[in-house]
Amino acid sequence: MEKNYIRQPAVILAGALLILYLLSFVNYEYTIAGFTFRNIDFFMDVKSDPAEEEFSNNSRVAIEPQALFAGFDFLKPLEFFTAEKDNANYAYQGQKTGFYGNTEQLKYFFDALSNAKTKPFRIAHYGDSVIEGDLITADIRELLQKKFGGDAVGWLGIVSQDVAFRTTTKHTFSDNWETASVYTSNPKSLKLGISGEVFIPQGNAWVEYEVSRLRRSLKGFSKVRIFYSDAKSSDIYYSFDNSSKKSARLNPGIGIQELVLDAGKTVKSARIEFPQKEQAHFYGVSLEGAPGIYVDNFPLRGNSGVDIAQIDPATLKEFSKYLNYKLIILEFGLNILGSRMTDYSWYEREMGKVIKNLKEAFPETSIVMISVHDKARKRGSKFETDPAVFKLLDAQKKIAHNNGVALWSLFDAMGGENSMHSWVTANPPLASRDYIHFNNQGAERIAELFVESLLDEYNKRK
């Protein structure tokens, strides 16, 4: 009689699952030949987390808005039509945190603040995907403009990766632009602009900008400043608020140049057309209105910050003639985190080059690094800070100290070790359930904490 083997696969599978289940409760971590091995909870996605369970039971909205776009809260627009949000937990996340390093060089920014309404100036905010979609930057801008003047969004690229979740500007463009950047590739070694990008039209190209209704503080703009180089002697065409089309002349030459399109009044939209192929190398525009502060959002997706060194210092210096930067913020870190990495000396060296270039181009500009924030990983049934965060934070403090700039610890401002979990489970939530990215409300809270610390330092010196 033939033996029945039908049950054997089921027995083997059940045994394997039992072993994996038991192993998920054993905490271990060891290194062999440079590779770190640690326990993995194979069942963590089906186990309940008491904190998450409590959040789900108490939350007004069960939908996770970060499902498609990390950092963008699709429910944010509903706040205009719904009752006032519950800030019971929101306001208590984070803590006041001072600056580390050379705070004396903040004097350039503080001096400019005192005269912002008569002598406009700018802030450049470079960062990784954490600031994509104008996150954090938009709220820093709003807080400072309310107090010191200025009422438009400032810098925008010609082509952008974050148009789907940018809440401050509706930005559309044709699909016939050649692009190069520090975060993609630059096979022709084209000169990159202040944002680390360059855009070349391929004939009958266009771009449109429109003020978003989702930001009540942004009323409109009265002029568009276009930055370009290597132009043919030719015309572009533009219109404001769908009015009749006008033309403007580009000046030939290899240096950075500016073309100002003046609406003569406050408008909500602008369309610019570029009829000729390779008409010029365009770097971006600045939408501007009343005198005050303009805060420019420069997101470099997937970047550690070191690639800013690809922007020629001579080009940065040319931009400094047109853009009066008094503060440069560098917010990077997530893209170099790795639990096996213990030596960040290469990062310290390369970021030192970036800061050196920026200082040469903008000698009377303050520089602040915003540190890596808390990033959680799941160990068993609990979320805890990735150990690499501590190593990177130490490296960033060394960068600030060795290069004579200031550092604001976002890690400490969040609440320090294991704080990301409380931001994710706050009511309303302040971060995505990837335990890495902030949502709109989290970005707003970070901006509040940062500006509060900045103005505290400013008030000490008044």
What would your notes on this structure say?
This protein is α+β, with helices and mostly antiparallel strands. It folds into three domains: 7-38, no CATH class; 48-150 and 292-462, Rossmann fold; 151-290, Jelly Rolls (Sandwich), CATH 2.60.120.1360. It contains ten helices and 21 strands. The chain has helices at residues 7-23, 50-58, 107-113, 137-148, 313-320, 345-361, 388-402, 410-414, 419-424, 440-461, and strands spanning 29-32, 35-38, 99-101, 121-127, 154-156, 169-173, 177-181, 197-201, 205-211, 221-229, 234-240, 246-250, 257-267, 269-274, 281-288, 293-299, 325-331, 366-370, 376-379, 382-385, 406-408. A six-stranded mixed β-sheet has the order 3-21-18-17-4-16, with helices on both faces. It has a five-stranded antiparallel β-sheet with strand order 6-9-14-11-12, with no helix packed on it. A four-stranded antiparallel β-sheet has the order 5-15-10-13, with no helix packed on it. Helix 4 (137-148) packs across helix 10 and helix 5 crosses helix 6 (345-361). The chain is globular. The chain starts with 6 loop residues before the first helix and ends with a helix. The model is unreliable at 27-38 and 43-88 (pLDDT under 50). GO terms for molecular function: hydrolase activity, acting on ester bonds. This is Putative periplasmic protein. InterPro entries: SGNH_hydro_sf.
